[in-house]
Design brief:
two-stranded antiparallel ribbon, 8 helices, alpha/beta, disordered N terminus, 56% helix, 5-stranded parallel β-sheet, 188 residues
Length: 188
């Protein structure tokens, strides 16, 4: 087996899906999980406890460390405090870099869809909400968080497979390509 094929084979075993709130991280992670037959971990579901209680810092780092040590996974979520740690272990990074207005529309739509309950990718007991802090974070993501993410992506570009999805069409093409190739081929 040629070396380049052997190297490519390791990709799509540990997949990190990151991006602004409302960019579609959880949806893409779930679809990839089905296509690649890999376990999906929604970090929002693990970080938050009922009533929107945050995980204790030491407990959170242990949770993330335990997850990334596994042989294979798909993980969606930002959480900048552990992002570098997750990027180091991931072999593939999917950056959902959709336009700000698309993300804003989606968080408003999501609020109305789940306002009386909890999203499937969120911890039980965390009713869907739309507060100023979250809206502000999504609105300012491109100016505040995005440059930091891009810097990290550049630092890892040589050893990671990076998919930078900038539109809904990019997302459709990316998923269609994985679907077309099937679970074993999609990871090559």
């Amino acid at each position: 087996m040629p070396e380049s094929r052997a190297l490519r084979k390791r990709f799509m075993q540990r997949v990190l899906v990151i991006g602004s709130g409302g960019s579609g991280k959880s949806t893409v992670a779930a679809q990839l999980g089905e296509l690649l037959n890999l376990e999906v971990h929604h970090l929002d579901k693990l970080f938050w406890s009922p009533g929107w209680m945050k995980a204790e810092p030491n407990e959170w780092i242990k949770t993330v460390t335990d997850l990334i040590e596994r042989d294979s996974w798909i993980m969606d979520g930002n959480y900048s405090g552990t992002l570098e740690l997750r990027m180091q272990r991931a072999d593939t990074i999917v950056f959902m870099d959709l336009p700000r207005l698309v993300c804003m529309w989606r968080i408003v739509k999501r609020f109305f869809l789940y306002r009386d309950g909890t999203r499937p990718d969120m911890a039980e007991g965390c009713r869907e909400s739309l507060d100023f802090e979250f809206v502000s974070w999504v609105w300012n993501y491109h100016r505040v968080s995005r440059p930091k993410v891009i810097k990290l992506l550049q630092e890892h570009a040589e050893e990671k497979e990076i998919f930078w999805l900038r539109s809904r069409n990019d997302v459709k093409k990316f998923l269609a390509q994985r679907h077309k190739s099937g679970p074993a081929e999609a990871r090559r």
